[in-house]
Amino acid sequence: MRICRFNDNRVGVVRDQSVYDVTQVVAEQLGTFSYPLPRYDPMIAQLSTLIPLFEKAVQGAQPIALSSVKLLSPIANPGKIVAAPVNYQAHLDEAIAEKETFSRHHVRQIHESGLFLKANSSVVGPSEGVDIRFPDRRNDHEIELAVVIGKKSGPVSAANALDIVAGYLIGLDMTVRGPEERSMRKSSDSYTVLGPWFVTADEVGDPSNLSFEITVNGEVRQKANTRDLVIDTPGLIEFASKFYTLDVGDVILTGTPEGVGPVKAGDKMRATIERIGTMDVDVR
């Protein structure tokens, strides 16, 4: 199933080029919460209950043209965003070659540097776009497969890692180049774009062989396949779970391939991942 969040925090099911509003189902099932609020995403936590109810609701709902809605981040409450640096060998080679852009501190192999966290305040949906925070510095696009955790987990083996995955998204890990730590340069507001919708794991199948690309103003900048990951998706989940409890709704960004490049206000990005979809993102 493809589930989106749109307009004024409505929830919809995406079928072809239409959205079917199922917000009422979510409202009835999720109820209210007392303080302290949960650290997980409540909708993802009840996904197994919601999906059959969504199926029934779609049958009686009027289709809304997908082109007419404002797409927000499908995951409204990610507790944390865990990201993988230089997780494609060709991108590592690219970074090493561009000494003026990537310092030695930022091009260590992923096994050496480990993972990093992005602020959840940086999350937006594709229709919200990217606001360039530092126009006097280089701001790069980085397309990545994004993984959504569906079951709370402590340390989990790679062999069992996909059992805790709820589904997948396209992620744009926008980046300000400079000397600061990654988590700071990549956590400005709107620098984590998630969308265009959440695709349940059963529709994606094996995440280790997905083609993807991003264009800027129609020019292909990055084009690769997840089979080229240094640490694959199950391995990343295992790696992350050794350090963090993975909560429902947490997002793991799996890394970006070679071809990262600058964007500026007025540019239009189009990101596509096989079996997930395509999202258009404006830069302001």
Describe the overall structure.
By secondary structure, the chain is an alpha+beta fold. The chain folds into two domains: 2-72, no CATH class; 81-282, Fumarylacetoacetase-like, C-terminal domain (Fumarylacetoacetate hydrolase, domain 2). Helices cover 20% and strands 31% of the residues. The chain is built from eight helices and 19 strands. It has helices at 23-30, 42-45, 47-60, 89-97, 110-113, 182-185, 201-204, 233-243; strands at 2-6, 10-15, 18-21, 63-65, 71-72, 81-83, 116-118, 123-124, 139-141, 143-149, 165-173, 175-176, 192-200, 211-216, 219-225, 251-253, 261-262, 268-273, 277-282. The strands form three sheets. Strands 1, 2, 3, 4, 5, 6, 7, 8, 10, 11, 13 and 16 form a twelve-stranded mixed β-sheet that branches. The mean pLDDT is 94.
Features:
284 residues, alpha+beta, Fumarylacetoacetate hydrolase, domain 2, 2 domains, 12-stranded mixed β-sheet, 4-stranded antiparallel β-sheet
**What is the strand content?**
25-35%
List the secondary-structure elements in sequence, H or E.
EEEHHHEEEHHEEEEEEHEHEEHEEEE
Give the helix tally: 8
- Assign the CATH topology of the largest domain: Fumarylacetoacetate hydrolase, domain 2
- Indicate the structural class: alpha+beta
The tally of domains stands at: 2
Specify the helix fraction band.
10-25%
Shape, principal axes of CA atoms: globular
CATH architecture of the largest domain: Alpha-Beta Complex
